[in-house]
Design brief:
The complex is a heterodimer of chains A (about 270) and B (about 250). Chain A is α/β, with parallel strands linked by helices and about 270 residues long. Chain A is about 35% helix and about 25% strand. With about 250 residues, chain B is mostly helical. Chain B has one domain. The radius of gyration of chain B is 20 Å and the shape is elongated. Classes of the chains: A alpha/beta (about 270), B mainly alpha (about 250).
């Protein structure tokens, strides 16, 4: 058994003529919580999709449990995905199913477990995220934080080896954020899984991550433990970690000269 | 032009995959039954009401013309043939596209926009077997049944106008219909048409939903395209099928 459950090796990925990643290397050791951070549009979520085999790299490879993801056929990719659980940014709960049925969905689809056992397992998963009492609700009746917790219960339904989180803290109130933050760490340790968090929320991510990769301009701009990165003097990391308005990442999107554009007659 | 050709190719691929993964989907036939309820049973009201009025109008217009030639007893045949051969399958397909087709497109488009299909994929659950195939077979099974109900209700509407209202002879209405409507040439051909329309309308709705850009505008446009493309396809296919049926 290799130490790293996921390895990204010299990975490049382009989309519509734009190169999003250029020779990225990352490793995700078993049992750890590893974060991928970076500004909006830096291709963090795309990295999760590459790990999940939803898209193929232009160059390089992603290995999950020693298997090269893009070399697998459909059945091979599905076999690898059974080792994964994913929490989507907005939960992606099935709106026509209740909370209970959402969590039961992967069990019913992928296993032959009897309904009585599925019931017990679903209640256990919901209990782990504190929502056993909400099992009868429909997704439309849940708050954003509750929906995210149900999605988390669904992601861990089959005790995956890898749990991927796409912006798990986005749009949550401070209490929900703290709850999700604690759950990610405790579930990771309880299940013995590996967690990959894609986020740009520095405070929460640094609180639970063992290791952090910073992605900028298609490359890994910095990496290290949260403590190392807090002390980093790299201009990009410093600007990002301390939330400074201007720095290597400019406040203004590239545009024509301000005065020239205002004075020109050209219609925008 | 290239984009349209590409879309036809993607649509054909989706159709092929739907057929391939249908076996997987049939293992849990309750999913198809559930969709038959949503697409078929829930379309019944609009089908029954429309059929009733279409049958009544047919009887009125038919009587107006037939009486000039002293053949008002043939009103039953006229109503039945018009409904069974043409109006039943065609109007049912047009109503189906407007009612169930748009619902299918909007539902799948929104599932895509809210990452529900991606979530399914990431769970190693095939969305074509789980979402597309049950809806496809529900549409294909529902359409001929709805068309048959349309024709029956239409004939009833025609009867109510022709016999109690206008005063055409009751026996002549039914006996002429029985004597002149052929099971193989009229009824079976009508059912074949509705089956083909069922495949076309449902597949168009599914493809448009699956191919919709994941935005509010994208889903809205896809829904509109479902109605427009389905309607034109049904009318064009009706001409082609009628020509073949006349020759054969």
């Amino acid at each position: 058994m290799t130490t790293n459950i996921v390895e990204i090796d010299h990975l490049s990925f382009g989309y519509k003529g734009r190169l999003l990643h250029q020779g990225i290397n990352m490793v995700f050791p078993r049992g750890k919580v590893v974060a991928i951070m970076g500004g909006s549009g830096s291709g963090k979520t795309t990295l999760l999709r590459l790990i999940g085999g939803q898209i193929k790299p232009s160059k390089g490879e992603v290995r999950v449990a020693g298997e090269v993801v893009h070399e697998q056929d459909r059945d091979g990719v599905y076999k690898l995905r059974r080792k994964m659980g994913m929490l989507f940014q907005h939960g992606a709960l099935f709106t026509d199913l209740s909370v209970f049925d959402n969590v039961a969905f992967p069990m019913r689809e992928l296993t032959d477990l009897p309904e009585s056992m599925i019931r017990d397992l679903v209640l256990m998963k919901l209990n782990a995220v504190g929502l056993r009492g909400a099992h009868q609700f429909m997704p439309a009746e849940l708050s954003g934080g509750m929906a995210r917790r149900v999605a988390l219960a669904r992601a861990i339904a089959l005790d995956p080896e890898i749990i991927m989180y796409d912006e798990p803290f986005a749009g949550l109130d401070p209490i929900s954020m703290g709850v999700i933050c604690g759950l990610i760490r405790s579930l990771n340790d309880a299940l013995g899984a590996t967690s990959i968090i894609v986020s740009h929320d520095v405070k929460e991510t640094f609180l639970i991550a063992d290791y952090v990769y910073f992605v900028a301009d298609g490359v890994v701009a910095a990496e290290g433990t949260p403590h190392d990165l807090m002390q980093s003097t790299l201009p990009f990391v410093h600007q990002f970690v301390h939330g400074e308005k201007d720095g290597p990442v400019p406040f203004h999107y590239p545009a024509a000269h301000y005065q020239t554009e205002l004075l020109s007659e050209q219609v925008v | 032009m290239i984009e349209r050709t590409w879309r036809v190719g993607v649509g054909a691929r989706l159709f092929a995959l739907t057929i391939i993964y249908s076996g997987e989907s049939f293992k849990r036939f309750h999913l198809t039954l559930r969709e038959i309820y949503f697409t078929g049973v829930m379309s019944l009201l609009i089908i029954v009401v429309s059929a009733f009025f279409v049958g009544m109008v047919l009887a009125l217009q038919g009587y107006n013309t037939l009486q000039k030639y002293g053949s008002s007893e043939a009103i039953g045949v006229l109503v039945a043939l018009a409904l069974v051969r043409e109006l039943g399958p065609v109007v049912t397909a047009l109503l189906f596209a407007g009612r169930a087709g748009t619902a299918i497109t909007a539902e799948i488009g929104l599932m895509k926009a809210t990452e529900q299909l991606s979530a399914m994929e990431m769970m190693a659950v095939n969305p074509i077997a789980r979402v597309v195939a049950p809806r496809f077979w529900a549409g294909v099974i529902s359409m001929p049944i709805l068309a048959a109900i349309f024709s029956m209700v239409g004939i009833l509407g025609g009867y109510l106008v022709a016999v109690p209202l206008i005063g055409v002879d009751d026996g002549a209405f039914w006996s002429q219909m029985q004597a002149n409507v052929d099971f193989r040439l009229d009824i079976v051909n009508g059912l074949i048409k509705s089956l083909v329309f069922g495949v076309a309308c449902t597949m168009i709705a599914l493809f448009e939903g699956f191919d919709a850009p994941p935005t509010a505008e994208g889903v809205s446009r896809a829904t509109t395209r479902t109605v427009v493309i389905s309607s034109l396809t049904v009318l064009a296919l009706d001409f082609v099928l009628t020509s073949f049926m006349m020759v054969v």
